[in-house]
Design the sequence.
């Protein structure tokens, strides 16, 4: 794993956005794996600003999102489909039909999971996956204990994850209890991974990633087995951890 040190959240977002823009410019048909949550909003606003100012085009890009809440339709402001449209897709020239987010409102959610997994493979997989990390080491909504072989599946959200996400809802009770997520095995098939880590509240997670064992009790640790991972972390997340030997 290679690590790039950023000064702060803004710097991390700019470095990551530049990295993605460069990839999109050199590979116009790139397949991106995208993430939601607080971490990537700064990246998306940089991509939107660059699209407006410099015209970087996304017409040939396909995207696959990591996860979605079960029970929310894409028009629900708390759904991740809505988040992606609002933060990115509505402001760049990506073809909406080439943007894929797991459906949380399907009658047969198990079939939906299998279809999503097949779709990614049918399109020949993800070239560059953007990832955040949970305080408990989750990637996507793969909570501690999830099999490293897992494919797209339904998960029960842990109390800590629901608490962390309650800030977007009116109350904790409104936070869905289940989600659909790409599995750890699905994520690991991506040819390249860009992991973003910002803020003091992620310091323990970053430390564990660097110093801990590869173990299913800490999902992100699997990334140590991936050949092409770049971490962009800010100073608040790094703290006094020695990230360069
Ligand atoms: P955050 O979430 O970006 O909102 O901190 C990251 C994650 O839980 O994967």
Sequence:
């Amino acid at each position: 794993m290679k690590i790039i040190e950023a000064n702060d959240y803004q710097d991390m977002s700019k470095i990551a956005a530049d990295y993605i823009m460069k990839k999109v410019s050199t590979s116009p048909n790139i397949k991106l794996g995208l993430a939601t949550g607080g971490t990537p909003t700064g990246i998306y606003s940089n991509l939107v600003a660059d699209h407006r100012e410099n015209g970087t085009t996304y017409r040939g890009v396909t995207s696959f999102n990591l996860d979605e809440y079960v029970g929310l339709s894409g028009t629900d402001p708390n759904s991740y489909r809505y988040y992606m449209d609002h933060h990115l897709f509505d402001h760049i020239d990506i073809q909406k039909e080439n943007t894929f987010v797991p459906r949380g409102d399907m009658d047969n959610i198990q079939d939906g999971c299998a279809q999503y997994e097949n779709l990614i493979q049918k399109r020949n997989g993800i070239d560059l996956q953007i990832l955040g990390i949970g305080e408990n080491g989750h990637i996507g909504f793969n909570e501690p204990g999830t099999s490293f072989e897992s494919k797209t599946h339904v998960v029960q959200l842990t109390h800590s994850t629901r608490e962390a996400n309650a800030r977007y809802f009116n109350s904790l009770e409104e936070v869905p209890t289940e989600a659909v997520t790409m599995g750890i095995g699905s994520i690991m098939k991506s040819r390249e991974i860009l992991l973003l880590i910002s803020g003091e509240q992620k310091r323990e997670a970053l430390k564990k990633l660097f110093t801990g064992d590869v173990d299913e009790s800490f999902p992100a640790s699997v990334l140590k087995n991936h050949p092409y991972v770049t971490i962009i972390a800010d100073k608040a997340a790094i703290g006094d951890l020695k990230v360069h030997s």
